[in-house]
Specification:
4 strands; 63 residues; two-stranded antiparallel ribbon; 2 helices; alpha+beta
């Protein structure tokens, strides 16, 4: 039986030679699971796009 684990940020922190592994606020992006500090827009220094009406508000996050 597969052990269920909670999602963790998979961002590689090169200077520290490790993955982030934070579990709070993790969401799924194309490059993988990311915490709020390591989303693609956060890494570019840009604010997150607020969710609009419809599907993005009602979907399940990184489950």
């Amino acid at each position: 039986m597969k052990e269920s684990t909670r999602p963790e940020c998979g961002h590689w922190i090169g200077a520290e030679r490790r993955h982030c592994r934070k579990a709070d606020g993790v969401r799924r992006f194309l490059p993988g699971l990311r915490c709020p500090e390591h989303t693609p827009r956060a890494l570019q220094g840009q604010p997150e796009i607020p969710p609009g009406p419809g599907w993005p508000i009602h979907r399940k996050e990184a489950s």
